[in-house]
Design brief:
This protein has 14 helices and 12 strands. It is an alpha+beta fold and about 325 residues long. It is globular.
């Protein structure tokens, strides 16, 4: 096997740890010893050796934790006395409760104090124009398995595939390549277009409500629609992130309109690119200018118009669509 160069090693992220250190604990240890023989500062006098070895040590730690399967077990007891166990790899505290992410499940724990929102969200059922639309849209929507009513609140349990990551976890790898942000833009706008057709504002599209599959180039909503409401209705609640990006909703009697979800899509993409405000994107001569212009311009007024504008910006930025491989180990990312 050709050994990676210093540049290649320094470019590796937590998602590459298991690729650099494959196999079980013994194989990981052997691989670490081999790399240490090359890059330990006592053996290698190159100026970059210290930084490279420190990075190798960090990736080694990620690989060890992933190989050891450091999953956390959570147990819930329903009000009916039934017990439920969930093994998760990542835990997060969101605006509206805890998020637990496992290999095949994701659970959103909505505290009892927000049960009025949770009950409305539990009753929500998506609608479709016909079977063709249902087939096209359902992969983007939460795949709820059960809702558990417990003493601490309602637990919304959903199915997820092992290749999917909560976007918040994915963002720990650092700013994404603009080419990956581009396919995520298309997927997010597909979701926003359906919401717009259904007359619904989601109100919380972002890192805690999206599952991403780098392998399959997929993006899907996750979690109960606690903030959602019909256009023209007043929000019952909104996360701070939404209020910061769309402060008009902080005003009394503000009503949902068609601009909100497209605005949140653009904010999410800027966050993925490591520049929520967009100031760096505006000045970066290496970032595709049509993409930057689209990201920084106000929404066209509705998701469909934004999608049409996005397709033109995408083609001007990247040319004909093509699949760009993105190797990410979900388990290693969640363990990092």
């Amino acid at each position: 096997m050709t050994e990676p160069t210093a540049t290649q090693l320094m470019a590796m992220t937590a998602g590459d740890a298991r690729r650099l250190f494959p196999g079980d604990a013994a194989a990981i240890a052997a691989r670490f010893r081999a790399l240490a023989r090359v890059w330990h500062p006592d053996r290698n006098r190159e100026p970059v050796a210290t930084a490279v070895f420190a990075h190798i040590v960090a990736l080694h730690g990620v690989a060890i934790r992933a190989a050891a399967d450091g999953r956390i077990e959570r147990r819930f007891r329903t009000r009916q006395g039934r017990s439920f166990r969930l093994r998760c790899r990542a835990q997060h505290e969101g605006d509206f409760g805890e998020i637990l992410v496992g290999d095949r499940h994701v659970a959103h724990v909505v505290p009892a104090v927000l049960d009025d929102l949770a009950r409305v969200a539990e009753a929500f059922r998506p609608r479709f124009a016909d079977a063709r639309m249902q087939t096209a849209v359902e992969p983007y929507l939460p795949r709820r398995l059960a809702t558990l009513e417990t003493a601490i609140g309602r637990v919304f349990v959903e199915h997820k595939r092992p290749d999917q990551l909560l976007m918040r976890d994915l963002m720990r790898l650092g700013p994404v390549d603009p080419r990956h942000a581009a396919w995520m833009a298309t997927r997010l706008l597909n979701i926003a277009c359906w919401l717009g057709w259904a007359g619904i504002a989601h109100g919380a599209i972002g890192p805690d409500t999206l599952l991403v599959s780098p392998e399959m180039h997929g993006v899907a909503l996750t979690g109960p629609m606690l903030c959602a409401g019909g256009f023209g209705t007043a929000p019952a609640a909104l996360p701070e992130r939404t209020l910061d990006s769309a402060p008009r909703y902080a005003a009394a009697f503000a009503e949902f309109d068609r601009r909100l979800d497209p605005e949140l899509v653009k904010l999410t993409l800027r966050e993925l690119l490591g520049d929520p405000a967009g100031t760096r994107l505006a000045a970066d001569p290496h970032f595709p200018r049509p993409f930057a212009h689209w990201l920084l311009m106000p929404t066209a007024g509705n998701a469909r118009a934004d999608f049409i504008a996005w397709e033109a910006a995408r083609d001007a930025s990247f040319g004909p669509p093509r699949f760009v491989r993105w190797d990410v180990d979900p388990a290693a990312v969640m363990a990092a």
